[in-house]
Amino acid sequence: MSVRKRYKVKPRFFIVIAVILCLLAAGAVLLLRGCGSQDTDSMEIDLLRTQRIQGEKMASAARRYISNKDLHYDGRYIEGGYPPDDIGVCTDVVWKAMEAVGVNVKDLVEEDIRENFEAYDDIISVQDPDIDFRLVPQLERFFERNAVVLTTDVDDILAWQPGDIVTFESSHVAVVSPLRNIWGRPYIIQHGKDPAGEEDRIYASDGMKISGHFRWNLASGKAIKANEKNTENEYIETENIETAD
Question: Which domain holds residue 234?
Fold first, then answer.
């Protein structure tokens, strides 16, 4: 008669199995985290791409506006708000630029002042939708409240991107250009005098100091779509930032 040999499972067997299971679980967690990290990185890349496209569109629109040979500086009050194409001031460069990305500055400024007048009552006494969006103090306050507020240090070169808005002592405003000077500082697209121009004057020759630097807030939902058709081709000329003397 044969006797079957009985095997005993030693405790270390269960320890080994437990260790293997823990390693498998840890690997699964790391894999899931890695996928989540890739998704986050992808979202950040998409956001940066959308921001870049938005800025390029704004800078291109500002350029087109100031290139009008009939344009001359004239700050007269206009019934209805919008001046004719042949006259304008510095603030008109801004709303024209933002119009290119689907943002109606006049309506947004009017709404913000109406609903939050206490935020503006130190600079205006009575709201006037026909002029508020064309006055630098009101526009600067609007951006302080609704845009991304950035550094005013022009030597922080990477912080300045095409389409950014820059204000000077709350009395002048311009759009940042894709052009850079030999030190890497950006040109600005402006109309503070005739003729309007795209100039190497981030350090204004009249000594005006920068009082604000803003970028339109993508979180507001008032921005273009990153996958807008033909965007890359339409604005290919701004892909390579030029360097000027």
Answer: 12-244
